[in-house]
# Entry
Amino acid sequence: MCCSGPLRLNEFDLSDSYQVNGLRYEMNLSFESLNDTISNLEIQTNTNDLLFAKTESSKYLASYSISYKVFEGYNNEFPIDTNTVHYSLKQNKSSPQILHKIKIYAPKGKNYVVKVSLLDKNRNFLISKLQTHRKKSKNQRSYYRIQTLNNDVINFTDYQKDSFKVTPQMHHNNVLKVMKFSYKTTCAAKPQDVTHIYRFAGIPDSTWIIKGDSEYDFPALKNGYYHFITDTIANDGFSIFSVNTSFPKINSIDQANGALGYLLDKSEYSDLLRNQNKRKSFENEWIRLAGSRERARNLIKDYYSEVAIANKLFTSNQIGWSTDRGMIYIIYGPPKIVYRYNNTEIWIYGEENNLLSEQFEFTKIKTDIADNVYELKRSVNFKVSYNRMVNAWIDERGY
# Structure
């Protein structure tokens, strides 16, 4: 079924995707190419998020719907496919995870932007999410099945906490080149650092070749991700990002010190990273910033709560806190207005078209590693604003 909406995707304010206050529903998306025309849209939800209401028969039921729209890009007004599926679910105390599979129209040869919306009818609460479905060729992610080895866990996404397996959905005669990369543990360059140039990790920690028509198991990495080259000539591929069991929370002193750099100047940050007693230097730096040990505890709790949210929102080939969007999110908070285009994302703090508002432009990096790699367009004009926000962060929190 097809229909049109009044606005293109790039005319919708997407800031709700970055808000953390109020109700937050878990909705993980993935795509599985079934043939050259049809794909499975796979939606993982958590039943604990839904409101179960008592019916006349004294049973408790959740009533919700999942809608989707398939666009050929953010600039398109008309979706090529759209539909709504309605669900009714009995309350069950077993595994809270539930997997929905909905067939969508997505012809091979293009990449698509899919908008998925979940409506909890009992709460009258709507959540939406946008995700790219890559289907330009059979070498892309949707033609490979990713699944955790733990049968008690539903996880088919690009983010894996457990060991997982990669299974080709169709016969592949080519080989898979596997590369293992480590995550960086230093913060992003400040918004005013105009000399900064974005670079991907160039040399993998290790590389090996496997046959592309077989099923292989991969252990979860402690601090890194796998990149699979599915076509060594065209250099096509996809990545699987390992996240630890505590994710999105930080669980290492190296990560904690790395993320602290946004509140420090260059010399302070350099001294922190060089100190051999990492935990002691971490404590001393926070006490210096906070003014007291008790206030430091409160500041640490607030700050690393923001870091965890950035991890959940922006992790890809870098942990979320170390990305450009993660940096702005941690220091400035959730953007009030967000517009996304095919190659850029605009964040606005304040009123739109107001000269006193702060606006950040992120450019999408074209890569087969991930679909959410963005670089901030830096400017020396951000220096005053950024320093003011850092000072406000330290002075106004922790009480």
The CA atoms of residues 183 and 318 lie 5 Å apart. Residues 293-314 form the longest helix (22 residues).
